[in-house]
Amino acid sequence: MKPILLVVAPYYQEISEMLIRGATDAIYAAGHTAEMITVPGALEIPAAVAMAIQSHRYSGFVALGCVIRGETSHYDTVCNESARGLQQLAIKKLTAIGNGILTCETMAQAEERASPTQGNKGGEAA
Residue 85: what pLDDT? Predict the structure, then answer.
């Protein structure tokens, strides 16, 4: 069986590590294997997934990252466009893509949602 690819934007390192742990635990528990690549930010995740789809090396994809609202509208652009890009890829390419990109108001929300023992959004995406 082909591995599942985790595409991670590790801007918030601690949050990313929790998301990765949750996702890999779920993948391994289901009897699959995983590989991982990193990208600079959430906006780059859909493009990286699109390129990886073309390789035919993976059975599915999990997008992981975190966007926390700041003082500008950049938050809205990143949240909307990363989600839209992943959804379009999943539909167009008929490919399994779990969206584990957290979109949070505060770091506390992100920590709770990323924690494998609380929200476990990485595990849910996987």
Answer: 98
Count Cα atoms within 13 angstroms, Cβ side, for 29: 9
Question: What pLDDT score was predicted for residue 69?
Answer: 96
| Short-list 64, 49, 46, 68, CA closest to 120 | 64
Nearest to 20 by CA among 39, 33, 7, 2: 7
Catalytic residues: 74
Quote the mean pLDDT of the chain.
97
Q: CA 100, 103, 104, 109: dihedral to nearest 10 degrees?
A: -10
What are 64-100's pLDDT values in tens digits? 999 999 988 999 999 999 999 999 999 999 999 999 9
* Residue 6 three-state SS: strand
The tokens for 78 are: 């990143």
Q: Which amino acid, one-letter code, is at 7?
A: V
Find the distance separating the first CA and the last CA of the chain, reported in whole Å.
16
